Amino acid sequence: MHSSSSYQSASNPTLKRTRSSEHVQLPQLEPDTYLRVYTHKSLRRPCATSPDEYEDNERLSVLGEKALDAAVMTALFYERPLLGLSEMEAKKKEITSWMNIDSWVRRYQMREKVRCHPDQFEMLHSPEETNALFYAYVGGVFANLGMDAVQEWINALMGLSGIQQPPPSQRRVKNLPTPQLQPAQPTPPRPQFIPPNPFAQFSRFPSTPMPMFPATPMVKPPPPPPKLPNPMTPAQPHLAFLPQFNEKASQRRVVVEYPAQFSGPPHAGKWTVKCVVNGIEKGQGVGGNKQIAKEQAARAAYYAMGWT
Fold first, then answer.
1. What pLDDT digit, counting tens, does each position of 25-57 carry?
2. Positive or negative torsion for Cα 15, 21, 25, 27
3. Pick the CATH number of 241-304 from 3.30.160.20, 1.10.357.10, 3.40.50.2000, 3.30.1330.60
4. What is the pTM of this model?
């Protein structure tokens, strides 16, 4: 068993940062991804047999490690003055060291948000678990927001003043004279035709032309204001409940499980999914596929927990 005293957290004194790097905002994740990032694999159900049933951060951690390495190397590649390969490798090793990653984990208070088995609390301070937790968040950013968001975040955390963005790929072309475009001539107004008055010669009064007034354009009435939802109304039935329920569960630090069972023939069977909160069944759903049944179970549990 590792203890927190076995690992002394310290930021790397040789890593140069700008002042702004100390106030970098944490990228926001989707609720379902956020819950998965902070769920330790020690909570994985023994009966889970496929990755679709894993609700922990192990897969995101592997993805995030690769994305972090790519982001750091990209930043160092475009640093000015240019770095040699040995310098890039040395700086990359320094930036992705456990001490440096631990400083980021402590800055964002990531350990305090992790849900894990009580026997694993002390292990969260080990270098392996520290790195895995940060990798998982990087993997969540990559999965939800893409590599550009990962690159922007890591660049800001590194705080290296020499980093430049990759220049756009442009081919040199021969300078050709730019064709001079003639300015568009305004279209002359069309003459207005005034029909003659057939009774003008019989009138007692001299014929005077009628004044012409510009036509008034038809103004469409403004669209009605959108209807605002009633704040006292419960959650709408057509909205997705699974992300909402998982977000509420993460905020309340409760353990949620979704045991699933398939019954019937393979081509026309049904999935039955239960929503179990802290070991107590709170909802159940049945559907033609697992996701629909899981959504129904989360909906039932959402109301059963009184979170409306």
1. 999 999 999 999 999 988 887 665 556 656 789
2. negative
3. 3.30.160.20
4. 0.51
CATH number of 6-158: 1.10.1520.10
| Amino acid in position 128 | E
Q: What is the mean pLDDT of residues 211-221?
A: 58
**Taking the mean position of all CA atoms in its chain, how far away is CA 62?**
19
| Beta strands 270-277 and 260-263, pairing class | antiparallel
d(CA 104, CA 98): 10
Residue type, 247: E
CA of 79: how far to CAs of 18, 129, 263, in Å?
15, 30, 58
Backbone angles phi, psi at 38, to 5 degrees: -100, 20
**Residue 115 neighbours by CB under 8 Å, 6+ apart:** 38, 39, 40, 43, 250, 253, 255
Domain ranges of the chain: 6-158, 241-304
Q: In sequence order, what DSSP letters do the residues of 176-222 get, joined into one string?
A: -PPPPPPPPPPPPPPPPP----TTGGG-SS---PPPP-PPPPPPPPP
Q: Which two tokens stand for residue 160?
A: 């290296």
Kindly state the DSSP code that residue 289 receives in the 8-state scheme: S
What pLDDT was estimated at residue 260? Answer: 87
Sign of the four-CA dihedral 17, 18, 23, 24: negative
Residues 55-101 pLDDT 10s: 789 999 999 999 999 999 999 999 999 999 999 999 999 999 999 99
